[in-house]
Amino acid sequence: MENIKKRHSRFWTLILIILSIFIIIGINNKMNKNFVIKQETLIYEKLPKSLSNYKILQLSDLHSKEFGKDNKDLINSIKEINPDLILVTGDMFTVSDISIDMNEEELVPYQLLSKLAPHYKIIYVSGNHEEGKDITYNGDDYTTRNRSKNNAYNRYRNKLESLGVTFVENSSLQNYDYFINIYGVYFESMEKGEYYKSINLDKNKLNIMLCHDPKYFDTFVNIGFDLVLSGHVHGGIIRLPLIGGLLSPDRTFFPKYDKGIYKISTSYMNVSAGLGDSIVKRIFNPPEINVLLLKDE
Fold first, then answer.
1. Could you read off the pLDDT of 89-98 as tens digits, one per residue?
2. Residue 245 and residue 198 share a domain
3. DSSP letters along 31-49, please?
4. Where is each Calcineurin-like phosphoesterase domain found (predicted)?
C-alpha cells in the first residue's frame, strides 16, 4: 500500500511539473508577441532649457519581427510617443533575411522605417547582422566600401537614405538641434578601436554614441560621451529573477551589461533588450522599445 501511495505521489508531482511547464511556455509566448515601452529620465545640467523634455526613441534588434500586420502596433505606439528623434542601434534584420538580388523593399525593417521616415528624424548604426552582409557584399575594409554596387544591402541603405534616414558608422552628425552630436561605430571596428582615436568631442554639447555592443561602455566614458545607446545582448535572452540576463549572443554567461540604464560618472548608457529573437527564444524577457527623456534638472 505504501508503494502505491508513493507511485501516486510521484505521478501527480510529474503531472504538476508538466502543467507548470506548459503554463510558463504559454505565458512566455504571449509575452513575446507584445512589446513594452521602457521610459527613463536622464538629467544633464548642461542641457539648454529649450531641449528639456527632449524625447529620444531607441529601436534595436528587431530581427525582422512584426507586431501586428506590417508592424501596425509598433508604428501606432511610436506615433503616440511622438519622439523628437529616433535612434536605431542595429540588427534590424537577421543576416539570413537578405540575399544579394532580393527586393530589399520586402525587408521588414525597410517597410517599418520607410513609414516612419516621413514623420521623424531617424539615425541608424549597423549591428553585427547588417555588418555581416556589408562585409560579404562590399568588403572587409569599411573605408573602401562602394555603395554604388548593385546589391540588396546597398539598395536597402541607399533607399533609406533617400527617405532621410542617416547612417552614422565611423562618422558623426554634428549640431543636431544645435546642441547634439551623434556618433556611430561599425560593429567590426569596435574592438580594433581605430575610429576612436580620431574623435575630438566638444564637451559643451551633448555627445551621443550609437554602438551596437554595450561592452565598450568604459571606453566611451573615458572619451567623454554623455550617452551611449546599445543593444545586441537581447536582455540576456533568458532573464533570471534577482540575477538578470543569462546569456549574450557571443555565448558569454551573465553579461556585465545586459539591459537598462547604467551610469559611470556623468555618462549614461541604455542597453535595449530589443524587439526580436535570437536562436534561443526569450524567456521572461519581453520585447521592448525605449524612450529616453532628457531633462536639464
1. 999 999 999 9
2. yes
3. HHTS-EEEEEEEE-TTS-G
4. 55-235
